[in-house]
Design brief:
Helix content is 34%, strand content 21%. The protein has 38 helices and 52 strands. Helix 1 (40-54) packs across helix 27 and helix 23 (720-741) crosses helix 28 (845-867). The chain starts with 13 loop residues before the first strand and ends in a 7-residue tail after the last strand.
């Protein structure tokens, strides 16, 4: 066995394949390379096929059957419409949490449920069959009507199942529940009977929201689901007093259609009212003093005659508007009443009372005995919202249409004072989208008001996410809870199981099918109306027979009964239910605070005195991109099918759950947001995975090592970036477990997304060379093991959130896993694996903090580069990091090499001395926080904040408080920024940027040599991009040919001057045109760069190595030594390896003295007849012959440009130099002086290792880059003259 550091032979134990992926229990088959381009939706389709072949969901349930149970209730949707984004969002949240619970070691049953009864179905049938009201249903018969309803109930069931499955949600459709199943309906009956037996059911008349389109009352929470801003009539009407018809009370209403049913007026007893004379008409009116503005714009328009409190008006009689209900005057109607619900914020302060069309009206008129419980209701509006025959002037008219006719008639009769319109928020039917009216209807009620305290207590035991919903939105709704009208005057629903006598005195409540059979003596095949309405029960009180009441249950009663009915409790599964109640988890949208959440809590409290669930996640609403409700009619949102087909389900899932909706806020859905998930999260993540596989395959191809991962045997890495990403990952797992246990998806998902950024844009980016093996095989394997470990952990963490991409990656990664390191018996799917445990021994907060500080410096430096438009390819001299904490500076210093590389600077300077660089603090006020708190004083204080001195702000930094213009300000009120004043007269030009902790100065002084290197990097970038475009991978052997025109111009000279630099990066021969005709071209491109045309051609195969390097790779000079009449010839390398250990003039003289035995001589060095001095740039003399004497220049000068000594060029292949060296190519002299100190094989090995700082490493030398011809002790050293030797660094352990 192995741990990734040696060859491992692994037997094939088992494998099979499906049409999409080969799946291995563990095979020695190599891991599959993956394409650079990926189509996520098509990959998801393959994964769906894999799950189907493996029957993954059912397999999960089988594997977990003996684990502790985790109970989840799924709120039932209607199948009469297609799933929308609200369903997708809630379904995704449910899927994530239940997958997480399974992967945390629980058995999680997930059954899909269907809401099959009620208005949504009936409304569709009414539209389809043109049914206008109860008479039409009576004509066709309830049996036929319900048959039609049953026919469309599951209209879109197949589409739902396809959609839910395509979105990656695992839920059981076969073992579902439907509210139309007789066994489900029987439990609903049982629930109702429990409430009835406890005295919680009563029949009453109540003013309720009423849908005229659906001919039925709605519950209060249904009425609150669909409010709209509408324009309604606003009228003020006069009511002459009986005692003096010249004086009128004036009342205001926005529902003129209720005026024919007026029975009283109401005023506030405590507020001031006035009697006034209207100056334009001379009429005398009474209204509230505070509401004069409702009728008059200026005081000159009226004359106040008297003032008095409202109580003075109590009991006064007035003249009715219409004669329809004059008989009610005998019971005290058409009288002024008093109640504190009349407010001074709207209207005239006189409220017209139509007691059967308003809840407050009903209550006030009951209090004053204008109406009684047994009164015949004054309610001249039928179930379709049309006036009945009693209202002779408007009979048959729809009430909203009648408004204009009522106003017209009032005007004709002189009762209209003022008419206009008003825009206000008005409730609409959630199903038919028509305006609701408020209307008194006889209904069956469940008592709720008496148990408000118990509801609040039980709600207190539930854990809500986010928690504000519990106390505010839901808590407030509970505090104002009203008795629940559970009956609907409809047909397609669970019939209310009450059999009553004609006078309603005798009532039998039936709680089961068996009980009904016993009472009626008839068999009962089904529980819908057509099957039981005809059944009668003999009276026990001599009242003939009892017949079933006509109403059916509100479908919310059925969904609230779902915890019990889905398992047919208590008729079956009694123990199983009681052991698992309350549910561990539910989730729905915030609109369900007045719907399903509420009905669940009411019924569980009434039945068992406890809450129905322990944990609940509430999501916000998904709106169209313009903030409007999504509307099929407006087509203001993209079809979910289009989104999934274009971007994939994972992208849609992650977009939705990484948004405000998971915190119960609203989301404006934008297609670009889904696309960004692909671009910013999935593609970088996929590229990191692809890069891992690419280099695992390269390792096998180049070094013969088969990578094989075992977490328990992997060596501990000493690399600080490995330690950081491993620690960061374990900290994430720790955070993930804590936050997921608290159901806080809104904290978890952003951290997971951030982790992808940390992995791809920091770890992989900064370790590319290591992963590609440029630092040696051992270090490469450590980096690969680290990257594999991270990706494997990440797949397991992300599996509940993005089930497709994690499965896709895992199916390939698992071929690299040692089976003994996987705890699960069956590891065929990522979703069978448990979540990773926290490995606390890998967590190092100090390293995490240090890297975080390094990242801040790099990001600030990048901002400066962007601001100054200096690309990262162009090197800069220096970055200065200023921080007040010495420990932070130590952290930054310890990671200096990464800052140098990432910011492409030559030097990092750290300092705590702000003054040296002209740094000071300045403060910016938080406009939102302070503006809200200080209001009018904010502008003045803002100016004072900007004038605060640096010293004052430094004290504020330490204390956290500061007083400005008498106001104490705190940390949250001010944002501190470092600002920078350029020091005049300084050589360096600095640009600055800072965050709250650190200030970064970047030296942007122009430097031609650095600009040249930047251009060379641009050339490298063009070559590498062209390589990628040609679908080449790093292991492909190629040669690069180039032509820069015009020749000899700036770009051409840069390429020629930096050939070695370019070569060392692209790891392929770089040659000028022409391209040999015998080569096979891969790709060619022309591009503009620095005013020249650059043409690049990449061909297959490497050009002969002999052509690759001409002359010594390192700068050199020939030496002619003339001392005391004796001459010697030799050479001196001015750098070695290339770019490192550059000689200065003093060092040159020292080295010459040592090589030629002239340590005790005073030497003079000449280039021609010019004596060299200290300031000389030696590299500019490369290739020249220098003359060394102990006196004046020699008269006879012989020059040669050819190297005087034999030499070998050396190219380091699979590692990076150590001991602060950078060059990977260099030169070794085989003799020096000429003919002396000849180099032998062992000396060659020793000098090569020494040159690259690899003294302790074993090397192999080759004549060719393909490493087919090794140099050994038997190789003739002379044959190596002017050749290039290729160096392979052997691994310290696990040599293949």
């Amino acid at each position: 066995t192995g741990c990734g550091t040696g060859k491992v032979a692994v037997p094939v134990t088992a494998w099979f394949s499906c049409s999409c992926y080969p799946v291995f229990a563990r095979a020695n088959k190599m891991v599959q390379q993956v394409s650079e381009n990926i189509n996520f939706p098509s990959e998801e389709e393959k994964i769906l096929q894999l799950w189907k072949t493996l029957d993954c969901f059912q397999e999960c349930l089988k594997q977990s059957k003996n684990r502790p149970k985790y109970t989840f209730y799924d709120g039932p949707p209607f199948a009469t419409g297609l799933p929308h984004y609200g369903h997708i969002l809630a379904g995704t949240i449910k899927d994530i949490v239940t997958r997480y619970a399974h992967q945390s070691g629980f058995h999680v049953e997930r059954r899909f449920g269907w809401d099959c009864h009620g208005l949504p179905v009936e409304y569709e049938i009414d539209k389809m069959l043109g049914i206008k009201g109860p008479e039409d249903v009576a004509k066709m018969g309830i049996s036929e009507y319900n048959k039609q309803c049953r026919g469309i109930v599951m209209r879109y069931a197949q589409e739902w199942e396809i959609s839910v499955n395509r979105l990656g949600r695992w839920i059981d459709f076969k073992n579902d529940y439907k509210t139309l199943y007789p066994w489900f309906m029987e439990t609903v009956w049982w629930v109702f009977k429990q409430l009835y037996d406890k005295g919680l059911v009563y029949r009453g008349v109540k003013v309720m929201p009423f849908s005229t389109a659906c001919n039925t009352p709605l519950s209060n929470f249904e009425a609150h689901q669909n409010y709209k801003d509408v324009q309604d009539p606003s009228v003020i009407v006069n009511f002459p007093l009986d005692e003096d018809e010249s004086i009128s009370l004036v009342a205001w209403t926005t529902t003129p259609w209720t005026l024919p049913s007026n029975l009283a007026l109401c005023v506030n007893p405590d507020l001031q009212y006035v009697k006034l004379k209207d100056n334009s008409t001379g009429k005398i009116y009474i209204l509230m003093e505070a509401r004069l503005v409702s009728l008059y714009k200026a005081e000159g328009e009226y004359e106040i005659l008297d003032k008095f409190p409202g109580i003075v008006l109590k009991g006064k009689k007035y003249k009715p508007l219409f004669p329809y209900f004059m008989k009610c005057k005998e019971n005290g109607a058409f009288t002024v009443l008093v109640d504190n619900y009349v407010k001074e914020e709207e209207g005239t302060g006189v409220v017209h009372q139509a007691p059967y069309f308003g809840a407050d009206d009903y209550r006030v008129c009951m209090d004053f005995n204008i109406i009684q419980k047994d009164s015949v209701p004054v309610c001249p509006v039928d179930a379709s919202g049309c006036f009945t025959a009693e209202v002779t002037d408007f009979a048959g008219q729809y009430v909203k249409d009648a408004d204009k006719n009522v106003i017209k008639l009032l005007k004709e009769r002189g009762r209209l004072v003022h008419a206009s319109t008003v825009k206000h928020n008005y409730p609409f039917c959630w199903r038919s989208d028509t305006p609701l009216i408020y209307k008194a209807v006889p209904s069956w009620f469940v008592r709720v008001e008496h148990m408000v305290d118990k509801l609040l207590e039980n709600n207190g035991q539930c854990y809500w996410v986010p928690d504000f919903v519990k106390e505010k939105r839901f808590g407030n709704w509970l505090r104002d809870a009203r008795d629940w009208a559970i009956s609907r005057n409809r047909y397609w629903g669970t019939p209310i199981p009450l059999w009553v006598s004609d006078d309603f005195e005798e009532v039998v409540c039936v709680g089961s099918v068996a009980e009904l059979v016993e009472l009626t003596g008839k068999t009962v095949p089904d529980l819908h109306r057509e099957s039981i309405d005809h059944l009668t029960i003999p009276s026990c009180c001599g009242k003939g027979v009892l017949r079933r009441v006509a109403e059916v249950f509100d479908c919310w009663f059925e969904s609230g009964s779902m915890p019990y009915a889905q398992v047919h409790y208590p008729f079956e599964n009694k123990k199983e239910f009681e052991d698992c109640f309350p549910a561990d988890f539910i989730a729905e949208g915030i609109d369900q605070t007045r719907g399903w959440f509420y009905t669940l809590l009411v019924l569980s409290t009434a039945l068992f005195g406890k809450p129905p669930f322990k944990n609940v996640i509430v999501n916000g609403l998904v709106l169209a991109s313009d903030g409007q409700k999504m509307s099929k009619r407006k087509k203001n949102y993209p079809d979910p099918v289009h989104i999934v087909n274009n971007y994939g389900a994972d992208a849609l899932r992650l977009y939705l759950i990484n948004s405000p909706v998971v915190r119960a806020d609203n989301l404006r859905f934008k297609e670009d947001g889904v696309r960004d998930v692909l671009k910013d999260v999935f593609l970088p993540w996929y590229n990191a995975y692809r890069f891992l596989l690419q280099n695992i395959l390269r390792l096998h191809k180049e070094d013969g090592i088969e990578f094989f991962y075992n977490e328990n045997r992997a060596k501990e890495s000493t690399n600080i970036m490995d330690k950081w990403i491993l620690s960061f990952t374990q900290s994430l797992i720790q955070f993930f477990r804590v936050e997921m246990a608290a159901y806080r998806l809104y904290t978890v998902v952003p951290r997971l997304v951030k982790f992808v950024d940390m992995l791809t844009n920091w770890y992989v980016r900064m370790n590319r060379r290591r992963i590609k093996g440029e630092n040696g095989t051992e270090d490469c394997i450590m980096a690969l093991e680290t990257l594999f470990s991270i990706l494997f952990s990440m797949c397991r963490l992300m599996a509940p959130f993005t089930p497709f991409i994690t499965e896709m990656m895992y199916q390939n990664l698992r071929t690299l896993l040692d089976p003994s390191s996987v705890q699960e018996k069956d590891s065929l799917s990522i979703h069978y694996l448990m979540l990773p445990q926290v490995r606390k021994n890998l967590i190092d907060k100090q390293i995490e903090s240090a890297v975080s500080r390094m990242q801040s410096v790099i990001e600030l430096g990048r901002v400066i580069r962007d601001r100054k438009t200096i690309p990262i390819k162009y090197p800069l001299k220096q970055v200065v990091v200023i921080h007040q904490d010495p420990e932070a500076l130590n952290d930054i210093r310890s990671l200096e090499k990464y800052i140098l590389e990432e910011l492409n600077v030559r030097q990092v300077t750290v300092s705590t001395d702000k003054d040296k660089y002209g740094i000071r603090l300045r403060a910016e006020p938080d406009h939102m926080v302070l503006g809200k708190r200080l209001k009018g004083a904010f502008k003045t204080i803002m100016a004072s904040i900007k004038d605060l001195k640096s010293e004052q702000l430094e004290k504020f930094q330490k204390s956290g408080t500061i007083v400005v213009d008498g106001h104490e300000l705190h940390e949250e009120d001010l944002r501190l920024m470092y600002t920078f004043d350029q020091v005049t007269g300084a050589d360096a030009q600095f640009e600055a940027h800072s965050d709250a902790q650190v200030l970064v100065l970047l030296d942007v002084t122009p430097d031609q040599s650095m600009v040249d290197e930047g251009v060379a990097r641009e050339v490298i970038n063009r070559i590498q991009k062209l390589r990628k475009k040609g679908n080449l991978v790093p292991t492909d052997e190629i040669t690069v040919y180039y032509r820069s025109q015009p020749e000899g111009e700036y770009l051409d000279s840069v390429i020629k001057g930096h050939t070695d630099f370019i070569l060392a990066t692209i790891k392929a021969p770089l040659k000028p045109y022409p391209v040999p005709t015998s080569t096979k071209m891969v790709i060619q491109d022309k591009t503009e760069l620095k005013g020249s045309e650059l043409e690049i051609t990449i061909v297959k195969g490497k050009s002969s190595d002999a052509d690759l390097f001409v002359g010594p790779l390192c700068a050199y000079v020939n030496l002619n030594i003339s001392i005391n009449g004796t001459e010697q010839g030799g050479m001196l390398l001015l750098e070695n390896p290339k770019g490192d250990d550059k000689l200065d003039f003093a060092k040159l003289k020292e080295v010459v003295g040592r090589i030629f035995g002239l340590q005790d001589k005073k030497l003079s060095v000449y280039n021609g007849k010019t004596e060299l001095i200290k300031e000389i740039d030696l590299l500019s003399l490369s290739g020249k012959t220098l003359h060394v004497t102990s006196g004046s220049a020699v008269s006879m000068i012989s020059n040669t440009d050819a190297p005087l000594c034999q030499y070998i060029n050396v190219h380091l292949l699979n590692a990076e130099p150590q001991e602060c060296l950078n060059g990977v190519v260099g030169t070794l002299l085989m003799e020096n002086p000429v003919g002396k100190n000849g180099l032998l094989y062992q000396g060659l090995l020793h000098e090569t290792a020494k040159m690259f700082g690899l003294r302790s490493r074993r090397l192999k030398l080759y004549m060719d880059q393909a490493q087919t011809e090794e140099i050994t002790e038997g190789t003739s050293m002379k044959s190596l003259n002017t050749k290039t030797v290729y160096v392979q660094v052997l691994p310290i352990t696990a040599e293949s």
